[in-house]
Amino acid sequence: MQDRLQEIRERCERANEKPAEEMRIQEVAQMRADNKRLLRYCDELLQKTQQIAALQAENDRLKEAQRWIPVSERLPGSPQEVLVWIKNAGTYIGYYNNLEGYKCWMMGLGERISGVTHWMPLPAKPDEQKGE
């Protein structure tokens, strides 16, 4: 592909060196055809670049949705169930209680837990319509 682009570039340079009336009709026709191909190539390249940018944005969104969030950075909405990481204990499902000024991490039916360092949203429920 690079060889072909280099050939097109050289033809364009040669065309610029001669007055238009001296150029043979075939050279003009070939140059126009090359220019059309080059424009199509540029359009395809632009489209692919936009697709890559969209995929990168989606990838970043998915990474953010699946990362462990330090409690020092932010807390989940209350009373939203989330995965919690408890230092020296592992992973549990819990929630941050911020109702009526009573701020603490809890799990189950109200068991208070401590040592939570990170949390992340629970994955979405299976789509029942797809039979998952």
Describe this structure in words.
Strand 3 (90-99) and strand 4 (102-107) form a beta hairpin. The two termini are 45 Å apart. The protein is an alpha+beta fold and 132 residues long. Helix 1 (2-17) packs across helix 2. Helices cover 43% and strands 25% of the residues. A 6-stranded antiparallel sheet has the order 1-6-2-3-4-5, with no helix packed on it.
State the main characteristics.
alpha+beta, 132 residues, 2 helices, six-stranded antiparallel beta sheet, rod-shaped
Could you provide a short overview of the structure?
With 132 residues, this protein is of the alpha+beta class. Helix content is 43%, strand content 25%.
List the helices and strands and how they pair.
Blueprint: H1 2-17, H2 25-65, E1 69-70, E2 81-86, E3 90-99, E4 102-107, E5 111-113, E6 116-121
Which structural class is indicated by helix and strand composition?
A: alpha+beta
Strand content: 25-35%
Q: Count of DSSP helices?
A: 2
**Helix-strand pattern:** HHEEEEEE
State the total count of DSSP E strands. Answer: 6
* Overall helicity: 40-55%
Order of strands, widest sheet: 1-6-2-3-4-5
Main beta sheet? 6 strands, antiparallel
Shape, principal axes of CA atoms: rod-shaped
In angstroms, what separates the terminal alpha carbons? 45 Å
Oligomer: single chain
Uncertain residue segments: none
The whole-angstrom Rg is 30 Å
Mean pLDDT: 82
